[in-house]
Amino acid sequence: MIEVQDLSVSYGQQIALQNASARFMPGQFSAIIGPNGAGKSTLLKTVLGLVDATQGRVVTSDDLRDLRRSSAYVPQQQTLDWAFPVTVWDVAMMGRTARLGWLRWPGRKDRDVVLASLRQTEVDALRERPIQALSGGQRQRVLLARMLAREAQVLLLDEPLTGVDTATGEKIMRLLQEQARAGRTVIMVTHDLEAARRWCDQLLLVNRTVVAQGRPDDVYTPANIECTFSSSHLGHTHA
Ligand code: ADP
Ligand code: MG
After folding, report:
1. Number of domains observed in the structure of the chain
2. d(Cα 13, Cα 124) in Å, to the nearest integer?
3. Cβ(16) to ligand 1 under 6 A?
4. What is the pTM of this model?
């Protein structure tokens, strides 16, 4: 279990999150939804320890350092350098080398896992291709392969549906749901409310704080949506 308790995060004078609380369970597929600048990426990064909280904390039933070390993170595609001269295979292998540690070469098992991951996201035919030459949808699937190759128990994804067509989006949601059904904790930031309602077990509406959290049918109400997407209601909390 991952619990975010009364979290506040600032970047200098800019307050990104204030008194945000949330809970994520193994086997649960959660979607974080909210307008641009709402603090969604900040929430993921704080769970990962990439950003420090000014108040509150992240608690887990396991050791927090272990959790962070064993998490797979898929950052927003547009924050990455796609001109970097590596192939699809290299990027997927990074999911393994992150776990290998100092002075260990990838072995047979690593290559098998990488190939299986590339097949699962249907980019194995592109494995020799430089990442520069890929479309947005292909890039997203390569990032998912890298995530799968990590064999992590906690998966955090920042807008994995951006730049993908409807059919690919469905495949990605099905894949993530399967990961949750296999007992993993899956947390995804998305703008796609409809996909989140349809596929996720839990919705979190975020606008500088967690406005609402729970099962999609309970959370997706006109009042909660209004509260999340109109800035005049900042700070109110609804069940
Ligand atoms: P979202 O992912 O919901 O669009 P973010 O978590 O990226 O929102 O950002 C929340 C707020 O924090 C925004 O106002 C954004 O401009 C600000 N912010 C995010 N990252 C930084 C940073 N590295 N330095 C300064 N301000 C930042
Ligand atoms: Mg973001």
Report:
1. 2
2. 45
3. yes
4. 0.93
- Regarding whether 166 and 127 lie in a shared domain, the answer is no
pLDDT in tens, 191-216: 999 999 999 999 999 999 999 999 99
Give, as one character, the DSSP assignment of residue 178.
Answer: H
Evaluate whether residue 75 is within a structural domain. no
Q: For ligand 1, atom 13, name the residue with the nearest CA.
A: 37
Whole domain around residue 122: which residue ranges? 80-152
CA dihedral 97, 103, 105, 107 (to 10 degrees): -90
101 inside domain = yes
The response to whether residue 14 sits with its C-beta less than 6 Å from ligand 1 reads yes
Residues 204 and 106 in one domain: no
Atom 24 in ligand 1: which residue has the minimum CA distance? 11
Residues whose beta carbons lie less than 5 angstroms from ion ligand 2: 41
Q: How many residues does this entry show for the chain?
A: 239
